[in-house]
Design a protein that fits this description.
alpha/beta, four-stranded mixed beta sheet, 10 helices, three-stranded mixed beta sheet, 27% helix
């Protein structure tokens, strides 16, 4: 039994949510030398933008963190009825990658929801991950949500779907031997078809400077509707990201969706180099998150912030595009999409 044979598939992110899941940032090692109050402030800003249109679930490690978070929510005057706090311990905050990969199945009574519980090994055993690897199952147990166990490593940030059968990913991540001992492309495609309901898979390049995930697609290419993708783009030919991003644009301009229709490609400019201690960070506007009534856009104090906001507003005219300051947050090597996980209705 698998999701595909049972009629389940991974929906697009813009489809209706029952809620959004976050994990409260608590690991100082993720943001070395940074003030965790600033990191928490970014998370609170996301909660504020989300909680008026969907339930926000927040994971914390212990009762002390529950009290601390409740105090912060009260101080921010956020409506507690829409925010649920769960003691589910984690090593880090990147719930996109270790949280449940939710699926839906259409029935006469509405959608049924289930989830894939992929294995998680901290992007090839780079950091501690034992608690993260258990969090997804704890979430599905809380929700009483049926689940599937694919049996291989895969992170949520590594896959991008249009909800109608097309999945975009990268070779550098999904075929990396540090995940599954080097499954080949054909073998990996079988998993994506069986567990996501994908019919058509596009393989991009994932060589983004400073990216410790080995090339997650959610920093590179994102669907904004079933037939349109925004592609991260660096016009400076001397920039180390230019070649990879150009290759992706060329590939996708010559690609189709699952029905054979050409994809529409829009260029999403990069925010210029964001550097910490001489090291390039994986800053990208593509790491946005589509919620029920808002789109959370990472911003970097760069002129292209406004360009990215305008482009997203064009494709989501009925949602408010909310800028989330990430010039410090990205020092943890992730952004808005990395710390969110949608639960569909």
């Amino acid at each position: 039994m698998n999701p595909d044979t049972e009629g389940f598939h991974m929906p697009a992110e813009w489809e209706p949510h029952a809620g959004t899941w976050l994990a409260w940032p608590h690991n100082q090692e993720t943001w070395p030398g940074q003030d965790m109050n600033q990191i928490e402030a970014v998370t609170l800003r996301m909660i504020r933008a989300l909680h008026t249109s969907e339930t926000v679930h927040v994971l914390v490690n212990n009762a002390d963190q529950v009290e601390q978070l409740q105090s912060k929510l009260q101080r921010e005057e956020l409506h507690r009825s829409a925010i649920k706090i769960h003691i589910i311990p984690t090593d880090d905050t990147w719930i996109r990658d270790f949280g449940p990969n939710f699926l839906i199945r259409s029935t006469a009574q509405g959608n049924e929801v289930s989830a894939n519980l992929w294995k998680f090994d901290s992007w090839g055993e780079k950091y501690e991950w034992q608690q993260d690897a258990q969090a997804g199952r704890a979430i599905t147990e809380y929700l009483n949500c049926p689940s599937f166990d694919p049996g291989i490593v895969l992170e949520g940030g590594a896959i991008e779907v249009n909800g109608q059968g097309t999945c975009i990913t990268t070779e550098q991540c999904l075929l990396n031997p540090n995940r599954n001992g080097g499954l080949n492309k054909l073998e990996m495609e079988r998993y994506l078809k069986k567990f996501l309901g994908a019919q058509h898979i596009l393989w991009c390049q994932g060589e983004l400077a400073g990216d410790d995930t080995d090339g997650h697609i959610d920093n590179l290419v994102r669907f904004v509707n079933p037939h349109t993708v925004l592609c991260s783009w660096e016009e400076d030919v001397s920039d180390p990201n230019h070649a990879c991003l150009q290759a992706n644009v060329e590939l996708l301009k010559n690609s189709t969706d699952q029905a054979g229709h050409p994809l529409q490609v829009e260029l999403l400019p990069m925010p210029g180099p964001v550097v910490m201690d001489g090291t390039r960070l994986p800053a990208s506007y593509a790491n946005f998150y589509i919620a029920n009534k808002t789109v959370l856009l990472p911003t970097y104090n760069h002129p292209n912030d406004a360009v990215a906001q305008s482009l997203l507003q064009k494709y989501f005219p009925d949602r408010e595009v909310v800028g989330i300051p990430c010039h410090i947050f990205v020092m943890g090597l992730g952004g808005v999409h990395c710390v969110t996980q949608q639960q569909p209705k």
